[in-house]
């Protein structure tokens, strides 16, 4: 627009040479005109926007002085998060500030849509949970002297974990700078997760090497396997805390903690029964049941959406409405996978299919992985939460 205005004023010299019969640009004037337009645009922008330096310490101190009771802490507007969480420096100026804070509703409070499912994170979470779950079972077997000299379960679990951790790199814009994730370990759960899974990969690889190279060292195998299970469990805890720390109602401590724990337990049991010889098939049924129970919170959301949305703060019903509309196909696919795994589990437990049981066990494990992947996608895509006015993400 600025350049068009300058052209009207007659400053677009050298744009056409009619005496020669073709269009041409004078390089010097073209460069001068470009720099002049950029400077003019910058001057207009500075005149229209006032930028000031914010003292972060003062903002934090003022936010902490608002009080400890979340019910009395202010929000910028009704649909925004509590100001003590995000500590915003934005100000909304109005002659009726109090009424705006209490009654002004943003578009996001009445119109919901699915979010991105974050496929790399889905793959990472599902594979690392299954790997850690299997290692927990292997560590318990080693401590009870029920482990065997077969190193395949350890190789299988470690491969799943390494594949899952490296899948998370696809979520980064610049994966070659992933090492910087360790720098914020003092305050960032993401950094702690990166450190935790780094330790877990090293511990799991060491435990696997012990079982491959020193099959008779049962005590050393038990110690290294236990360390892999403990470090992996702490890493999964850090993963869940990444989402709990957002303070979103649908990613609360109880919901997310129970979800991640049941998912890890279910995948671990099913995977262990598939790759470890001699485990009772009743553990397979428990694992499939735990995997299905992890979706219990989303069932509640789905049921509440059928009762209607009486107020905009009913995030559970709003999330369920997304499951019923835009994400209905994925919701149905998840339960088809779950019930198929359950039926095959009953077949394995009841029928004598000695020749086909290994194939059926790995099929059940694959179905549980797929069902958990869809479940984790819905975990990200169907979340509804408080957002800043004008935010459409």
Give the helix proportion (percent range): 55-70%
Total count of helical runs of at least 4 residues: 15
SSE arrangement, N to C:
HEEHHHHHHHHHHHHHH
Mean pLDDT, all residues: 80
Q: What is the tally of beta strands?
A: 2
Distance between the termini: 29 Å
Q: Low-confidence parts lasting 5 or more residues at pLDDT below 50? A: 1-29, 43-49, 63-72
Give the biggest sheet. Answer: 2 strands, antiparallel
Return the CATH topology of the largest domain: Four Helix Bundle (Hemerythrin (Met), subunit A)
Strand content: under 5%
Strand ordering within the main sheet = 1-2
The SS-based structural class is mainly alpha
Q: Rg from C-alpha positions?
A: 28 Å
What CATH architecture of the largest domain would you give? Up-down Bundle
